[in-house]
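DATA CLASS: polypeptide
GOAL: derive structure tokens

***
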Amino acid sequence: MKNGFFRCTLVAMFGLALLASPTLAQQSDDEAGRLVVGAPGASRVEVEGTGSLTTLFASNNSFRGNTFDIENIGALPITITSWEVNLNNTGSTNQIDIYWRVGTCNGFQGDPTGWNLLGTDNAVISAGQDIPSAVTVPPFTIQPGELFGFYVDHASYGAGTSLQYTNGGPTVYANSEVELTTYYGQGSPPFAAFYTYRQWNGTVYYDIVPVELQSFSVE
């Protein structure tokens, strides 16, 4: 009986504590250092933190696309939330498609088999050559140890606007969570001509996703 009464008391106290802390439903750090993002009543995402990885914005060549690999080298899942690319023709409106495949892009840059469209942003405004231009497509989660190939395609290529990149590679860019290896420049149409080697100019932004909390009982 005492154990049962103790459990009920803990549950009741915990419930009252949550009711007394409305700010947790807005934006705060919990005791584990996690960030809860979202307004009360809206969908919220719990993350350990956020990060980004930039290759470079120093172009000396251009065409329609780039293929490269991204690997999660950290201990927790990551979810890519947004991208930046390098475009010329400041102020122009562009369509960017992003594709992915399981495993490396290397050897598959000229073959559409196995590639999947992650998403399309048809309202990408060029900030100008060697200045990041924001791209928004659906999020993409990579588990620890997983590697995926990505293909950034400037689907509206032409009319004076192209995707800017840099000669050389393969080149590895990395931090403690993500490793990105550049490979090819891509021509038009997609999965046709490709150019060895070219470094994608861009940034990936991501959330670090926490491990699911374990449930336990008090004896």
